Structure formats: structure tokens, C-alpha cells
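**Backbone description:**
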Amino acid sequence: MVEQRYHAVMEVAAGAPVTEVAVRYGGLAERRVSGTAHASACSQSYLPLPDSSCTPGSYNPDVTQSNIGSTICVSGWTATVRPPTSYTNPLKAQGIIDYGYSDTNMSDYEEDHLVPLELGGAPRDPGNLWPEPHYGTKTAYTKDGTEAKLKNAVCNGTITLSAARSAIKNNWTTALQVTGIG
């Protein structure tokens, strides 16, 4: 196995340097963030939701109501648009800093699409990605179930793509109730 190490210094909102160390083993990468920023750019007060000023959510323009039969409703389609961890892990590391999380363990978060790929969320837009905690009462795992139910309802014709996207973007914790499928 090849091991590569590197060191970078990033500047955060408050101007405090934060050190990021990455270790790559084969195709797997782990980043550890150390140092302390004096202020975070994004608020944790909305958890389990992201701060909408930092993570407003966005849509993939290639997914529309008229083409869901050849995009999101095709088994395995999300794998064709999902960005690699080499793209999302640096965003996750920066997001952990931006949100001011005291727990900086990368594995305690999922770099999640606010508007999920399953509903035609923008795959690479940083405004659609945020480090969602795996801890708390409503977590990234809870959101995964909501995403699946909304996608199934869209693909079954129970609700429109627009209704599902809007509901999950506004508040994923109430999206099933708002759309009438929960």
C-alpha cells in the first residue's frame, strides 16, 4: 500500500490558521483537521438542518420532471453523477471548520447533498453540500430514509419532482409530512 502525507494551511472566516493533514491508503482518504478557528462562518443553531446561508441547496438542471424515467428513477443512476470523495472530502474538511464543529473527526460526518442526488440535486455545487453529523436525534442516516421515500413517491407519480425538491430543501425533517407521504 502506498501512503502519501501532505500538509496545508487554510485560512478560515476569522483568519485563524487551521492545519489539515491527509493520509491516503490506496483509494481511501482520511483527513484530520486540527487547530481552532475563532469564529465559524456557518451556524450550528439550525441542526439537524444546515445553515441556509451556507448551504442553500441547488438542483441539477439535467434532471426535470419530464426526464425522471431516464434519470433519477433508473436504478444506479446516482452513481453516474456522484462526485468522488477526492472532491467531497476537502469540502467536508472545510465545512467542519466553517460550521465550527468541535468534533473534527471526518468519519463523524457525511458530506451530504441537501437536495439529494436521488431528487436531482446538484452533484458538485458546494452550496448543495454540507458536513451532516452522524450524531443527534435526526442524523444523516435519518435523512437517507426520507430521501428514499420522496424519490419513490416521485417515481410512482404520487408527488411531483418539484414538490419533493422544495420540501426537502426547505426542511428535510418535515418533508414527508409537507408532501403528504409521511
